């Protein structure tokens, strides 16, 4: 069947992780995503990331750019801008992830492009947004995690502040952008008018404080770092040490707490009035966790899983990445996809979570830099070979495109 977004075309001035992650979600749903890569900088910096790097190909770049096309274009020069505006005529959206002052400088806003295509959706993902005192500042995931309060609630209580193990601000902002792009395109097709979407890593991170932000802003309650990755108020909802490692337990409902206590042979805890409800378990968490810790230390993780899983209590061992990719659920649902790459050999990566019942899970290589330049100029820009060659001589595509 035709993919859901097969009739959507997005021009993406993107690099590294957050931006390419956003458009990857749309490409996985069938959108035509055309990366506009700067020939003077060697394209997306992700092409140079180690390990698994060869020439302008890397496993990092493959992770974020499978199924896309690449247009080599120098947006700083007049000819590059002329070529860009030509292809904007045939696109649904222009997406960028740059500093907040760059969309205006490079002519990527709706005000710059509405005369070319009144339906164009211009979505900018920046560190802090295109207005405000930090608009022109650069930002990366850990900087935003520090500024937004994430590090203050991550890690053990007595350890230094820590970022999350993966770049959750980047990836969350990517999902936010994918939603915004789809909403903007829907509106443009309905009403005949495009728009700007001014999105930021900073505001994405702040929004993900969620209930912690609400507690702090409303009641002045300051969240704290809990031992063993524990929840702020739910107990037990954390890692518990076993005889040979740790197990993660999540008792987010009363009946799950009761099932857990019975599964580990601690029915006596259910008779203790201190632990009768959520508030009591939170108030007496130290005493309760001491009891649970003493019990959990008596058996290995696998032995506890064999008792707790059948009881219907959400639990898991703490895998490393290799073990996570070997999990039986991954195999059962085809969670890894692979393909042969001309310079990187056989590449295996995690499949898109955007599973569709009407389509098999598959993946293909990311584009070579500038590989689709001429085709895109013809198909979207409506230009013939002489016009494309003229733009090339004027430096639109860089000297090596």
What does this structure look like?
The protein has 18 helices and 13 strands. The protein has 401 residues and is of the alpha/beta class. The strands form four sheets. A six-stranded parallel sheet has the order 5-2-1-6-7-8, sandwiched between helices.
Secondary-structure map:
Blueprint: E1 9-13, H1 18-28, E2 32-37, E3 53-54, E4 57-58, H2 59-65, E5 69-72, H3 78-88, E6 93-97, H4 102-105, H5 110-113, E7 121-126, H6 141-147, H7 168-191, E8 195-200, H8 201-207, H9 210-219, E9 237-241, E10 246-250, H10 254-263, H11 267-270, H12 278-283, H13 285-296, H14 301-308, E11 315-317, H15 321-326, H16 328-332, E12 336-341, E13 345-350, H17 373-379, H18 385-393
Parallel strand pairs: 1-2, 1-6, 2-5, 6-7, 7-8
Antiparallel strand pairs: 3-4, 9-10, 10-11, 12-13
Which keywords apply here?
elongated, single chain, 401 residues, alpha/beta, three-stranded antiparallel beta sheet, 38% helix
How would you sum up this structure in a few lines?
The chain is α/β, with parallel strands linked by helices.
CA-to-CA gap between the ends? 35 Å
Average pLDDT level:
96
Low-confidence stretches: none
Outline, from the CA principal axes?
elongated
What is the structural class?
A: alpha/beta
What characterizes the major β-sheet?
A: 6 strands, parallel
Count of individual helical segments: 18
Residues in helix, %: 25-40%
> Reading side by side through the largest sheet, how are the strands ordered?
5-2-1-6-7-8
Number of E strands? 13
Query: How much β-strand is present in the residues?
Result: 15-25%
Radius of gyration, CA atoms, in whole angstroms:
25 Å
Quaternary organisation: single chain
């Amino acid at each position: 069947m035709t993919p859901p977004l097969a009739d959507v075309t997005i021009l993406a001035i993107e690099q590294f992780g957050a931006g390419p992650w956003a458009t990857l979600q749309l490409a996985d749903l069938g959108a035509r995503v055309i990366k506009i890569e700067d020939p003077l900088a060697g394209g997306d910096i992700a092409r140079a990331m180690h390990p698994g790097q060869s020439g302008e190909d890397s496993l990092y770049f493959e992770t974020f750019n499978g199924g896309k096309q690449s247009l080599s274009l120098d947006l700083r020069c007049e000819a590059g801008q002329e070529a860009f505006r030509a292809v904007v005529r045939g696109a649904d959206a222009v997406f960028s992830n740059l500093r907040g002052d760059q969309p205006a400088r490079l002519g990527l806003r709706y005000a710059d492009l509405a005369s070319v295509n009144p339906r164009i959706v211009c979505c900018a993902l920046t560190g802090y947004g295109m207005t405000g005192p930090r608009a022109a500042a650069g930002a990366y995931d850990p900087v935003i995690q520090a500024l937004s309060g994430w590090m203050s609630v991550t890690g053990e209580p007595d350890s230094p502040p820590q970022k999350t193990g993966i770049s959750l601000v980047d990836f969350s902002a990517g999902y936010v952008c994918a939603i915004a792009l789809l909403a903007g395109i829907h509106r443009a097709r309905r009403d005949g008018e495009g728009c700007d979407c001014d999105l930021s890593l900073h505001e994405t991170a702040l929004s993900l404080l969620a209930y912690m932000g609400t507690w702090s802003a409303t009641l002045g309650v300051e969240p704290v770092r809990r031992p063993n990755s524990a929840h702020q108020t739910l107990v037990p909802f954390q890692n518990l040490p076993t005889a040979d490692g740790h197990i993660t337990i999540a008792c987010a409902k009363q009946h799950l707490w009761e099932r857990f206590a019975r599964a580990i042979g601690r029915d006596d805890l259910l008779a203790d009035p201190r632990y009768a409800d959520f508030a009591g378990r939170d108030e007496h968490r130290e005493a309760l966790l001491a009891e649970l810790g003493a019990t959990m230390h008596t058996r290995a993780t696998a032995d506890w899983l064999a008792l707790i899983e059948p009881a219907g209590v959400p639990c898991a061992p703490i895998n490393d990445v290799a073990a996570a990719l070997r999990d039986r659920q991954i195999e059962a649902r085809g969670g890894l996809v692979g393909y042969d790459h001309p310079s990187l050999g056989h590449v295996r990566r995690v499949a898109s979570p955007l599973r569709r019942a009407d389509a098999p899970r598959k993946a293909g290589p990311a584009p070579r830099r500038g590989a689709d330049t001429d085709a895109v100029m013809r198909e979207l820009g409506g230009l013939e070979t002489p016009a494309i060659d003229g733009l090339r001589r004027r430096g639109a595509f860089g000297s090596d495109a």
